[in-house]
Amino acid sequence: MVRSNPFTIRLTYKTTPYTQAVTLGVDAGYSMVWFSAVSGTRELIAGECKLLEGQVERNQERRDNRRQRRGRKRYRAPRFANLRRPEGWLPVSSTSSTVTSG
Q1: Which residues, at least 6 apart from 46, have a Cβ–Cβ distance to it below 8 Å?
Q2: pLDDT single digits (tens) 71-92
Q3: What is the pTM assigned to this prediction?
Q4: 10 near 2, Cβ under 8 Å?
Q5: Which region, left, alpha or beta, applies to residue 98 given φ > 0 means left and ψ of -120 to 50 means alpha?
Q6: What phi and psi values does residue 64 have, to the nearest 5 degrees?
Q7: Using an 8 Å Cβ cutoff, are 38 and 51 in contact?
Q8: DSSP structural state of residue 3
Q9: Residues 91, 96, 97, 101: what is their CA dihedral angle, to the nearest 10 degrees?
């Protein structure tokens, strides 16, 4: 290979100047692409390519992984001390009503 753009290949042997007229047909569908190369009355090659599916799901997974990575960067100490109320705890409304009535 000599260059990638435009794609160029240099042969290591002599060739004839003969070229063949070939027509390429492409049918692009939603999830498949079909192609065929025809020379005169003969079909030289035919095939199909399956296109990528599920790009929306891949983007969502990528977004979720990025959020997880960003969330792991900052350390926050576990907060278990505020999960239980102390023994004999009453809501503020009950406490104020017992103090004013008593």
Answers
A1: 34, 35, 36, 37
A2: 777 777 777 777 778 888 888 8
A3: 0.43
A4: yes
A5: alpha
A6: -65, -45
A7: no
A8: E
A9: 150
